[in-house]
């Protein structure tokens, strides 16, 4: 065999072996012994030993061929060629080795330039062949080993295979070992081996590697003489390794040595040298690391300066340019993070973009540069909040991760950075997909990072942060437990002295604090403070992270303060947060957050101590925070909402409206800036709701409390179950429902408040710091429900809940006084119910403790003093001890003095103080007390803030005090101004936006007889026109509200058409809401839909009030829809004599409006409220004895109010056949006597007074009196007053002999525009046998008689008669629009709880007033209601005229005939026949050119009925029929 053949065989073997490298499918010949050995190996060791066997076989072949080659070349004559030819073969081998080495080196350079994996594979293959061919002792063998090691190292950098870096170190160690001391290449090989150890350290984190790297590189430097061209490179690399060790251990000596070595490298490298940029770049990186540790600006400035030079010295197109750009960008970003100057972060993004763009696809550095670019976009997003940045960050980081193979040492870090960007986007948008992806990425990073790796603590720390954030969103305990566990591992794996140890301690402390906030276990808050204190102590002054650690430690102290209430904690919190602010330069992105947190701590101290300086500093800090935070920044939301909360709190102290308006403005901005799904949206909505509730408590505008509930409902719905914030949000929503209940008195609100409060308590674990507050509020709700329903279970539950709240709260806690005070209030309520002295004594004891625990200047102190005073007054009332009433006055005076003017609670406290002075005056009779009583009540009544009901009651009490003072001291004083205040408050009390039943309840409970007293006062003062105006404002309030919704807008449309259109639109919407009850629904509306309807209605009311204010600001419209003056009211009387009757106390008065609109007054002697009450009772007795009933006998009541009189005993029913059911009793004497009494005491004196007006009308026709009675007078038959002697008609005299009577519920109810109709068009409805109702057979005879009269007057074609099944609700409502007259002969059903649901029973349903009013009844002229009790009002609301007749007036019929009580089924046809006979005849006489007047027709029809009957004994046949309207 020739040497050339041997060389060819060697090359082929080596080539084949490299091609098969990594393959497990090749065949290998093995001996029997080897096969047995392999078969006994574990499966996981088989491949490794098989590969070793293959390598041994290959080496045996190579060494055999080499031995043959050596033998051939060493033995003379062994071959045919001469020895010279053998030398040529050696040269040939050298040439082959050199060629292979060159090919490998060239491939390595190509890979470094282009990043193609095929090139690095070729490099390793060729260099491996060269190494295998080079015999021991070959001069280039160390170099080949070194280069082959470098190629493996390079492939490791690309693919991250640990086998490559291990192989690289093995090869380079051989290179070093084969190189003799003193050899010029020895330093280079040592340096390269050190680089490989450095890289393996970066991958595996084993300290032995970095220590070995520094040792090797230090040898390389020491062995290289000064002036040697490679010395700078070795110094640079030594510095790099010191930097890496510094990053792991944090020892300053390492970073100082790094900078020292790299400075020398730069200084030793001449300008223009190709390596100078790299050395400058690395020196800049080391300065940056030292800056991160010490925070000295000189370091970061030098870093940027060095790296800028590196960029400038690197020509375009140079493969190192992208790396220099990338590193310079990193330093600019680092400086931005310290100084916050936008130029730095913008420069960082630009530089890194350039670095990425200049790096070819497939290049091993491309993923790292994409990663760094993503970090810069992420950082800029943190400052500006622009979504494009965070989206680009995630895009870049996702590419970086995807381009990085599994096993690559940088993969975990890139996954960690991707996690951070997903977290940032989650914090902005709140999409759970982002937080899930963040945790998924972080878990992968943890799994890919081997134990002991220096980055493992970093990744564990960040994984903990992500779990903590998800906990804050979802509230799952598993997340916060994992956060604590991960961050505990991170801290444990971080050596003392490491620069990141403080940050990891800080984060671990934050997670313990979050867990404390959820579970309330003191061990967690103790650990939080412990860890964060360590973090502060380990962080040197000037370090850029010092402010954030100080801030977090301050937060932990504040949280502990909220649990324990120790002042040392809140003072420490403010001190630490102030330091954080002061250490942070303006423009730094974290400055707004620190300012915001400092403000929050000042707020907490203010809530404890009440010092105004604290709340002012809080607002100042948070305002700065808002101003420093750019629009779009994700943190702006929280800062705005906190600023709003601080303004809210200052408002509660000072009562300045500017504060509460700013609070709502700030929080509304925060809500608008927050996307749905954002994790902070519930908290922001909740805080906005609190501010709206606070403003409502001041101004009483329903829109505010509705918005509060709406916002907090959204907050609840957006908060997932299990979230730690859920109980607090439920609690606040419950408080808002409780507040609305106080205003609207709807049981749904207080029941909802109790339900929500119970949920909040049940969801809060024992020991949680907020549990006492939730228990306290639940107790308040039970207390309030007790006040409404009086159920003892509620007050007992209130005391039980509030006792728990007190017992769970330490005395030092700032909320303890509030809890004590509320518990005392509940004991007071129970005392009022049961009268047990133990309760009132306990109440005083608890409230005294509350006062003692509340520091002077605290905003809650006045309220607690006021409540303690109330309890003392209550005990005085029971025991009569002067010490109690004196103490009550003293405490309430303090409460008033400590409450600033304009505060919403000041009126209530003034009212309470006035009450105590009044009680003391009643006991002692001292003038000073009555004077102070009047002063306090005056100040309360005339206040512009505070609940209207409090001011109304104060005005009424002031009037009573003035009257008392006048009575005792014979001192006359004008009380008209206080009565005026009282009257003006009625629209606020009986608010149009309140539910109708609540308005009626307010009229009954609050307004009551106050109107009559005010009118009487005006009469006594001879202010007669004012008396008429006040009487009009205080009666038929609800009907008047509806009437105003229908007011014509002709003048407004002419002057301001757009405004008129807006106002008309909202009026119509309110009217439809007013009339919306009774609409048939196939499905029961949900609670949510009812809530939405109610809120929409109240919003329309607020819109109407706003438009009213705008209209009244226009010239000529200053009095638009204001209460009418007398001049307008008198015109509504249409020239008829109108008599307004009122009774109050000892005075009964008539206000007489003449046909010429003059007004006069007469007072009825010896007629008092008691006298009228007796007459009413006598009338009821006599009338009930003769009740006949054409109507519905069913008891439809749903409360203590009843709709219909209770049916009489069935044993009496058989004696009388009437429309409906009831007895007939022959004896009329009581009724006769009552009518005689009414004549003699009221009607006859009045007739004598107006005698002139009556006789003036006799030449034309009988005079007409329109009665407008009030109070109990409303139920007396004034039209029937007279002396009815059954035995001698000579002595009979009655009002109907002198005048025709009509009634009206109010003067403005008479205000109708005359409607012309050529002929009457009549809709007649009869229901003789309505299903489920008593039969009314007389209705058919009634219809026959009406048709007979119509035929006599040729009008039968103008009558549409619907009866039985024809008379459905739909049929009647459709016909109504085409007929001006309607006659209803059917059952009438009064609904006193909701007059809009009063109805007429038709076939298959009821025709309600609401349905009538929804129709356009523009032709309506007259209605005859031939049913029972259609003009009978509710005794509890005498001035509201709550009956069907008034309802028909309100629906648009100007003239209505109704019945004051039950009528006989046999009488109704006779009355109807006589009535229509007269009406039709009057119309026919004028050929219907003059409209006949129903009042006269009814008058003469009843007169005819009396004359044709058995005499006046049968009064019940005609007295019930009355006329209402014009």
Task: Give me some keywords for this one.
1526 residues; elongated; 5% strand; five-stranded mixed beta sheet; 62 helices; mainly alpha; single chain
The count of strands amounts to 16
Major beta sheet summary: 6 strands, mixed
- What strand line-up does the widest sheet have? 9-8-10-14-15-16
**Helical proportion, percent range:** 55-70%
Gyration radius over CA: 49 Å
Structural class: mainly alpha
Report the sheet-strand fraction.
under 5%
* Poorly predicted residue ranges: 18-27, 71-81, 968-973, 1077-1086, 1191-1228
Residue-averaged pLDDT, rounded? 85
Number of helices: 62
Shape descriptor: elongated
Distance between the termini: 142 Å
How does this structure look, described?
The chain is built from 62 helices and 16 strands. The termini are far apart. It is mainly alpha-helical and 1526 residues long. The strands form 4 sheets. It has a 6-stranded mixed sheet, with helices on both faces. It has a 5-stranded mixed sheet with strand order 3-2-1-4-7. Helix 5 packs antiparallel against helix 6, helix 7 runs antiparallel to helix 8 and helix 22 packs antiparallel against helix 23. The protein is elongated.
Q: How are the SSEs ordered, and which strands pair?
A:
Blueprint: H1 3-19, H2 32-39, H3 43-74, H4 83-114, H5 117-133, H6 141-159, H7 162-178, H8 186-204, H9 207-223, H10 231-249, H11 252-268, H12 276-294, H13 297-313, H14 321-339, H15 342-358, H16 366-384, H17 387-403, H18 411-429, H19 432-448, H20 456-474, H21 477-493, H22 501-519, H23 522-538, H24 546-564, H25 567-582, H26 591-609, H27 612-628, H28 636-654, H29 657-673, H30 681-699, H31 702-718, H32 726-744, H33 747-762, H34 771-789, H35 792-807, H36 816-834, H37 837-853, H38 861-879, H39 882-898, H40 906-924, H41 927-941, H42 948-969, H43 976-984, H44 986-989, H45 996-1007, H46 1010-1020, H47 1024-1033, H48 1037-1045, H49 1050-1055, H50 1057-1074, H51 1087-1112, H52 1126-1131, E1 1137-1144, E2 1147-1153, E3 1159-1163, H53 1169-1184, H54 1210-1213, H55 1229-1249, H56 1251-1256, E4 1263-1269, E5 1282-1283, E6 1293-1294, E7 1299-1303, E8 1322-1326, H57 1338-1352, E9 1359-1363, H58 1369-1376, E10 1381-1385, E11 1388-1389, E12 1399-1402, E13 1405-1408, H59 1409-1414, E14 1422-1425, H60 1444-1451, E15 1455-1459, H61 1467-1485, H62 1494-1508, E16 1521-1525
Parallel strand pairs: 1-4, 4-7, 8-9, 8-10, 10-14, 14-15
Antiparallel strand pairs: 1-2, 2-3, 5-6, 11-12, 12-13, 15-16
Helix pairs in contact: 1-3, 1-5, 4-5, 4-6, 5-6, 6-7, 6-8, 7-8, 8-9, 8-10, 9-10, 10-11, 10-12, 11-12, 12-13, 12-14, 13-14, 14-15, 14-16, 15-16, 16-17, 16-18, 17-18, 18-19, 18-20, 19-20, 20-21, 20-22, 21-22, 22-23, 22-24, 23-24, 24-25, 24-26, 25-26, 26-27, 26-28, 27-28, 28-29, 28-30, ...
